[in-house]
Each structure stands twice: as C-alpha cells, then as structure tokens.
C-alpha cells in the first residue's frame, strides 16, 4: 500500500502564489517585448520627429510600461555603424500611437565619416588634458558626437592612469575628428536568508540579512535583496580600471562563524562592512517600496560593495575620504575616512544611497558626466541619497538635506543641497548658456559643482523656501529670483516626479532647461496639468534660475 502526504493549505497557497508569480513575470516580460516591438515600428513612421537620417539604426535599451498600458521605450542610436553620443530617444506609446518622443539631438544632419586626424592624434589631444600619469589608452574609436548644436565625427578616447589631481584615473574624452578639439570630458569613476546582528559604527546594533552556509559559516550576502554582498578590499588603492580590477580580485568576502558582525568600533574590520550592508539594503528597499524598482538595474540583482578601499592622490599618497560607484563593472567602493582630518569612515546611509543611485541612472537615462547632464547626474544621486536617508529614518542619522554630515566631526557636511555654493566652487543658480562639457572632470564645471542647481531645485520643490534649522540663512538666500513664497509639495511627491522624469524622459544629454520641461510633464502625468504640484515644479526651477 502506498501512502501519500497531502499538501497543507499553506503549502498549496504558497505553490499557487509561486506559480502566479512566475506567470506574472512571464506576462510582464511579454508585455515589455510587445511594447518595444510596437515602439520600434512607430519610430520608423516618425523619423523626422526624431531628427533621424536614413542611416540611423535604433536599438532598444530599456522599456517601462505603465499600468494603463502606456509604454516608454528607450532607444540607443547608431549611424552607419557608429554610436551616436547624445542620440538616445525615449518613445512614449499609447493605444498603438506614438504620443511623444524625448530626445536632445537637435539636427538630422550627419557629418562626413572621413576623419582629418587619426586615432593617435586624438589620443594625444586627450592625453594633454589628462591630469596625471597616463598608463593605458583603454578605448579609442570613432563615434558621432551629438551633444552639441550639430553632430560631428569624433573619437571617444578613454584613458586610465594614476597620480591624478583633478579627476579619477579613468576619464573619457570626446575629440573632434576634424579639429582635434576636446569637446567633452567625463570622469567614469562616479564618486559618498539568515538574520544576523550587525554591530555598526554609526547606527548601533541592527538586524541584518546574511547567508548561512553551515552551522558555523555565514557570509555577508543579502539573499533577500538580490544577493548583494560586501567584500574587504584590504586597503587596496584605486584610481583607474586596472586598480579596480586588481582590488576586486584581491578582495575577500566578509564571513563569520556566529552571525554577529563587528564590535561597534574600528578595531574589527567587519564593523564598517555592516554599515555598508545596512545602507545598501535601505537603498534597495527605498527604490522597491517607493518606486517599484527591483534593484539598481530593475533586474533583481544585488550590488557588490567593497569596504576598506583607498583612493590615490596626485602626490602618490592615498586617502580614505571618498566613496565611488563604477558603472563599467557595477561595483561600489567605500573609504575608511581620515581621523586626523576629522573624517570618519565614508559609509553613511546617504552615501550608499548616493552611490547606488549612480547605478539607477546608468540603467535608465544614463546621464552623461559633464555639462548640464553631469550636474543632473550628481544631483540625481544627492536627491535619492537624501530620500533614502529620510526613508531609513534612523535616530542616529535623521533625514536632512545635508550630504555626509554623520561622517564629519562637528556635524559638517560635504555639501548642503539648499546652499551648495557655500563651498566657493559650486553653483546654486543656473548660468546663461549652461555648463560647458569641456570643463568637466575636475574643471570649473565639474559635475560635483554644477549639481548645486538641481539640488536647490529639489529642496525648494519638496520643502519650499523654508530656512533649514541651524543654517543661518534667510529665505532670500534660498532662491535665485526673490520668490520666497514658494510652498513645498513634500518629499514623496517631489521624489516621484523626479523618478518618473529620470526613467521615462531624461536622455543622456538632457540639459537643465530640458529637465525643467521633463519634470513639468512628469508632474502633469502624475498629478494633472495645471495642478498645484506642476505649478510648484515650475516655480522651484525658476527659483534656481532655470527657465
């Protein structure tokens, strides 16, 4: 006689839920695929709208489908086999029609593909701008550079080196293939299952998710958030791609025997690793629970983080006062600070949120790292880093609009979003003509300086012209146009407007005025045309001198 055990009601329910989840995921994938195919067909009927040439080819990069079936399909563009930098398009489709197309390309004119200077000459021009010891030319290929008024033939030259002073050791330059002029400079190193106890440095004792391999083996891997993991970089110093690869190869995964990590002090190397683990988890939860995003790239895959990293300086020394996200390998690095200079480990919640948000940008709009787009790129990370800090709501580090204040003695911040220009280098207000891409990567218009415009906009949109406690400012000092009567709409609405604009409207070369238009459109879609929210968006941008 054969005995069979009957499944419990709970087991049956879980099995059904799992089957429905798999079916739902397959249906969602099919819907995205169908939406992308439909959009591809539609853009072929509207080439003039897209400033397209017969030689242009469009490749799907990302697809977002709203609940009502509206599609937002992001396309990369190439021309006769050459990538078009700044040629990306977001096509909005609805009921089988192309409703809108977001793009920054200004002309359908295409340049001659005959270069007047060769790759070697382009590399020399780029090398002349590289502020340090050049080690390797990582990439040198022809592209169409279309971030300016007219598309031009150019070389995309990526250099890596060391002993740099004004930028990291991994920088991409776009060099005009006719004149040899450097058109753009972009820093590529964008720098802030089981349940265990993490004895963190900043946040006290916390319950953290880990991976149990045996009774006496636990790994610092978050199986509940895409298997994100924290490694010990063992003090490896980075400034370029070779350094980064060397650091990751030599790093070791944090492991433990009793699932208790760190000792709330720097004498245990696992202590700051738990701060990192906590910040990464809080960022994952924010994007998932607020925006429905499953991981940085919306693919359910966690991020690898490297604690105890050093960053090379020009004089050959190293510093721990930094944190960075590296898009090429999708990893993050955190420094140990510098106690002698009043810096604790660079592992605060808003730093984790900031760095991981570089990944969200890379997966969506992929804002360039120079010019107006570079400022928007850095502002995007400050905005979401701040929203993550408010979301986590930890009593040791309550939410505010100050970046990294928990990590500096005296409560100083790396920058204040509402008054970033206080550092003497950053911009609070937009300037006529916008920011110059050729002055990026350590120049006067480095993204860390131009982000102040976007940061001020977001503060005013969320909070209004309300003076932050202890800042010593007046309402008039919070605005660029005297409009001190601005009322905020709250962080939740402001964050949702920004996220929608980033994921469905911004392109790689979006300017500040175009970001104004995109966020106005996002506000109208979310809260209605002419709504108080849309009006607030317009006033906040104007108060940052973006019109």
Automatic annotation (TrEMBL):
EC numbers on record: 3.4.24.-
Domain Peptidase M4 C-terminal: from-to ranges: 365-546
Name of the featured protein: Neutral metalloproteinase
Compartments, record wording: Secreted
Function: Extracellular zinc metalloprotease.
Span of the signal peptide: 1-28
Family: Belongs to the peptidase M4 family.
UniProt keyword Protease, yes or no: yes
PepSY domain mapped to chain residues: 126-184
Names of required cofactors: Zn(2+)
Residue stretches making up the FTP domain: 58-101
């Amino acid at each position: 006689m054969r005995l069979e055990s009957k499944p419990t009601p709970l087991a049956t329910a879980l099995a059904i839920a799992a089957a429905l989840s798999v079916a739902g995921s397959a249906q969602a994938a099919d819907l995205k695929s169908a939406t992308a195919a439909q959009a591809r067909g539609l853009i072929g009927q509207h080439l003039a709208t897209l400033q397209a040439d017969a030689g242009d080819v469009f490749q799907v990069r990302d697809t977002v489908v709203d609940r009502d079936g509206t599609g937002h399909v992001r396309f990369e563009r190439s021309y006769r086999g050459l990538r078009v930098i700044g040629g990306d398009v977001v096509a909005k489709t609805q009921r089988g029609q192309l409703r809108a197309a977001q793009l920054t390309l200004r002309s359908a004119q295409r340049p001659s593909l005959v270069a007047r200077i060769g790759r070697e000459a382009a590399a020399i021009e780029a090398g002349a701008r590289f502020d340090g010891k050049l080690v390797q030319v990582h990439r040198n290929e022809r592209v169409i550079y279309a971030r300016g008024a007219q598309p031009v033939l150019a070389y995309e030259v990526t250099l890596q080196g060391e002993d740099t002073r004004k930028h990291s050791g991994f920088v991409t330059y776009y060099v005009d293939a006719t004149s040899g002029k450097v058109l753009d400079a972009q820093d590529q190193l964008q720098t802030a299952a089981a349940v265990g106890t993490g004895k963190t440095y900043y946040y006290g004792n916390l319950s953290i998710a880990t991976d149990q391999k045996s009774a006496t083996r636990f790994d610092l891997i978050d199986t509940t958030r895409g298997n994100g993991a924290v490694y010990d970089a063992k003090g490896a110093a980075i400034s370029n791609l070779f350094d980064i690869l060397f650091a990751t190869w030599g790093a070791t995964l944090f492991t433990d025997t009793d699932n208790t990590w760190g000792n709330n002090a720097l004498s245990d190397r696992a202590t700051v690793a738990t701060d990192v683990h906590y910040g990464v988890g809080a960022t994952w939860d924010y994007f998932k629970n607020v925006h429905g995003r499953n991981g940085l790239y919306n693919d359910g895959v966690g991020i690898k983080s490297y604690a105890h990293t050093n960053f090379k300086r020009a004089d050959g020394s190293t510093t721990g006062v930094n944190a960075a996200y590296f898009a090429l390998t999708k990893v993050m690095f955190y420094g140990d600070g510098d106690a002698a200079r009043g810096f604790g480990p660079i592992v605060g919640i808003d730093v984790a949120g900031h760095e991981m948000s570089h990944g969200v940008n890379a997966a969506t709009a992929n804002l360039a790292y120079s010019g107006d787009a570079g400022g928007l790129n850095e502002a995007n990370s400050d905005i979401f880093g701040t929203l993550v800090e408010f979301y986590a709501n930890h009593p040791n580090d309550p939410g505010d609009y100050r970046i990294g204040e928990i990590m500096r003695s005296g409560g100083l911040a790396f920058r204040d979003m509402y008054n970033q220009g206080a550092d003497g280098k950053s911009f609070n207000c937009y300037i006529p003509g916008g920011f110059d891409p050729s002055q990026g990567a350590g120049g006067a218009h480095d993204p860390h300086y131009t982000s102040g415009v976007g940061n001020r906009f977001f503060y005013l949109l969320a909070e209004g012209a309300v003076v932050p406690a202890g800042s010593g400012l007046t309402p008039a000092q919070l605005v660029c146009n005297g409009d001190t009567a601005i009322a905020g709409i709250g962080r939740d609405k402001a964050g949702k407007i920004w996220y929608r604009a980033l994921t469905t409207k911004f392109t790689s070369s979006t300017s500040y005025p175009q970001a104004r238009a995109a966020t106005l459109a996002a506000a109208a879609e979310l809260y209605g045309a002419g709504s108080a929210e849309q009006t607030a968006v317009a006033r906040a941008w104007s108060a940052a001198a973006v019109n």
